[in-house]
Structures are given as structure tokens and as C-alpha cells.
Amino acid sequence: MTAGKRVWAIAEGYIPGESNGPAPAMTSHETICVLNTGDEDARIEVTLFFTDREPAGPYREMVPARRTRHIRLNDLETPEPVPRYTDYAMLVRSDRPVVVQHTRLDSRQAENALMTTIAWSE
To answer: What is the pLDDT, as a whole number, of residue 47?
Structure first.
């Protein structure tokens, strides 16, 4: 059985520009966790939306069949680096059904904050 949808929205995004603790484990970051339960690789496109400029993307990634992949937005560089200190939202599109979860580690203080939520799909 294949689980998931092809379009997911995450309305809240923000990567702090500061971190506290050893890199890369404690670097403040945002991650989309993608689960592909299907028998074929899933091609993923992420588009970022901002309050005061045109969208960025698509950022293209792949999630192998019957696997999960955690994609750190901090690591996305093409077509442009994901900005720090900037509010954004994102749309995740896939050519195969997948499940998407969003996670943020905010390590600006020694008392770290971790937030995670399932994305919204239609």
C-alpha cells in the first residue's frame, strides 16, 4: 500500500541564523521529513513563498522507493540558498504519493527548542 499525497503545504518556516552547540548536530535548522512507501522513487520539488518577494525554487530532491529522507533546508543551495532570519512558507510537490513532516531545531539558546508538525495536504 502506498501512503500519502502529492502536494503538501507548510505555512510556517524560519531558520534562525545563530546556533548554540556543536555543528552539525546542534545547528539551528529546518527539515522536511519525507516518507515514500511506494515501489518507485519520488521526485520532490520544494517552492518557498515569502511576505515581500517572489517565490524561490523549485528545489529538487529525490526520495528512494520504500525509504524515508530528512532534507535539511539549510543545505539547499540551488537555485539559491534558503535565507536565514526570514519568514517563509513552502509547498512540497511530489510525482508519487508521499508523507511530509516538518521539523525545526532552534538552538539559539542553550535550552534548545524542537518543534515538529505534519504538513497539510489536499
So the answer is: 97
